[in-house]
Specification:
81% helix
Length: 257
């Protein structure tokens, strides 16, 4: 199986960003495949989800060893997200082959713009903390957590975007007392079964390209490991604005295509 070095390099950059910030997996990988490597939208989403299934446990394991995972929150997220992710794939199948790529391109663009907005909201909340706001303790709220899982899972199943961006921001609204490492760690752990459900659906009904997937995995695995190891010292003043700019530019290009 041929490994494309340029695709592997893209996987390395995306994997590093995911490990560093918990954001940017599908939100970067999928538009890179569509816009730079001209892969059709369904193949990009399908292949990215299989890559994420391999990549997420690496970053999640680092956070689990550090004790920065809220297992109770992750569990109830999965109750909502796993069936919703598979349902998202079934929706794509029901749309039909002729319309699916056009639908996916628009949906992906909107998801990217929403992810960009989530960066701004996360920054606002972080600034409030820096100004002395003392949020309440992060006590488990089962109903709200399941709802976050359902919304995030459906979006991930449809577009591969959201497991590290939209879900983290929704968690911030429900659990403002969670520290940033806990947000990233909890999201990465719950994303494993979430992405697993979506990946299985796309393996059955999507368009997984094995050569593309292998190239992305070759780059993303070392990238996410190194990024997760450096996450406590992440230069977020540089990473987040850059990620925001990329998401907005990619989202607008896909929505207006």
């Amino acid at each position: 199986m041929h490994v494309d070095p340029l695709v592997a390099l893209a996987g390395l950059a995306v994997g590093f960003t995911v490990g560093l910030t918990g954001m940017g997996g599908g939100a970067l990988m999928t538009p890179i495949m569509v816009l730079l490597f001209h892969v059709n939208a369904l193949a990009a989403v399908s292949s990215d989800l299989v890559v994420s299934l391999v990549m997420k446990p690496v970053g999640g394991a680092v956070h689990a060893r550090r004790g920065t995972v809220r297992k109770d929150i992750a569990l109830w997220l999965c109750v909502g997200s796993v069936p919703a992710a598979f349902a998202g794939v079934l929706i794509l199948k029901a749309v039909g082959a002729q319309q699916v790529n056009a639908l996916l391109t628009r949906a992906l663009g909107l998801a990217l713009l929403a992810s960009a907005g989530s960066i701004v909201l996360r920054r606002v909340i972080d600034n409030r903390r820096a100004e002395g706001w003392d949020p309440p303790p992060a006590t488990l709220r089962k109903g709200a957590t399941i709802a976050i899982g359902v919304i995030g899972g459906l979006i991930v199943g449809l577009t591969s975007v959201g497991s590290g961006s939209l879900i983290i921001v929704m968690l911030l609204f429900v659990y403002p007392g969670l520290r940033s490492p806990e947000l990233v760690g909890t999201d990465l752990i719950q994303a494993v079964p979430l992405v697993g459900a979506a990946a299985v659906g796309h393996l059955l009904f999507g368009d997984v390209r094995l050569g593309l997937t292998a190239s992305l995995i070759a780059g993303s695995l070392p990238g996410v490991y190194v990024g997760a190891r450096l996450s406590s010292r992440a230069p977020e003043k540089i990473v987040r604005p850059s990620l925001f700019a990329v998401l907005v530019a990619s989202g607008l290009k896909l929505v207006l295509a």
